[in-house]
């Protein structure tokens, strides 16, 4: 555990705040979009109406007795929150439970015909088929001829900035993608990142865990980074942690990994070579997928179960992607931004790297000058606008 006491966890109860807007505006918008994307029958429509009303004015409700994960959610705090306003429980918890209840409403865990149908799939596929995705893949053609250091940087930054591709974020902030990214990182531990993965004979025994975030235009560069690290002999095995079920609109599941690999192998040029190498890596077991239930838990990573802790302890490095995973990694609190990243991640069982664009209030590990410059230029907007990014590493 960290020696630094955490400030109180963030709630969604302050009108005008970012968390409040997510509960009050983003969630109803997501319900609307999912409803429009599928020809659901009257039962699903009724349940979606009920969820929308519950989000606006109601309270957290229990899962049905038949829910396969009911006991797990009870372990994750459900009983303490049932009957309370969505706005008064930890924001991390209420957001996560919203996605669980949305899956309930569309019959994802039921026994009917909608069982296992990802309600976000149309949005994910549209993104995968977008011209921007093809343009990003075409850019791989020139990369092979570049010097090694340049390729390292391009693939690391490709994975980092891929985190801007977040469909949930764009649903509530239509201008998000148009706002220009600020290339200078607010924290940059890339040198430490590379120092933890030196190429060489012993690297073959080294495992890298990559805790994925979004599918599509984030997952593809994550896979390309994994392929690069394996090809460079910087690690011998990559374990890709994905979500066990659809979550936060675009979070990657196993099905999304398959779609991303098929997109790569079906693309022209160098992208297909990378895709084939990744396909082979899956067949040989040097790239494996893990869909642990805790990856979609409404809790900070301090609560991770023993089996996951043991896995991360054995990894040479765990790379944690994205904003939500960052909130879980450091704790969903408004830390003073200069709180050392190493302190708040001291509990983590092995070396850990965060690759994240800034899309919520949580931030640690800034130096005082950087924070002051950001505040002077943007007020509080830099924290949530998705235009800034960081690479933070704790050895
Ligand atoms: O896909 P990411 O990077 O985890 O972002 C998830 C988004 O949802 C949030 O968790 C807020 O709902 C933000 O942190 C971010 O806008």
Automatic annotation (TrEMBL):
Organism (species): Streptomyces asoensis
Catalytic reaction list: beta-D-fructose 6-phosphate = dihydroxyacetone + D-glyceraldehyde 3-phosphate; beta-D-fructose 1-phosphate + H2O = D-fructose + phosphate
Limits of the Damage-control phosphatase ARMT1-like metal-binding domain: 23-371
Top-level taxon of the source organism: Bacteria
Family: Belongs to the damage-control phosphatase family. Sugar phosphate phosphatase III subfamily.
Cofactor(s) annotated in UniProt: Mn(2+)
InterPro entries tied to this protein: ARMT-1-like_metal-bd_sf, ARMT1, ARMT1-like_metal-bd
Name the UniProt record assigns to this protein: Damage-control phosphatase ARMT1-like metal-binding domain-containing protein
Keywords, ordered alphabetically: Hydrolase, Manganese, Metal-binding
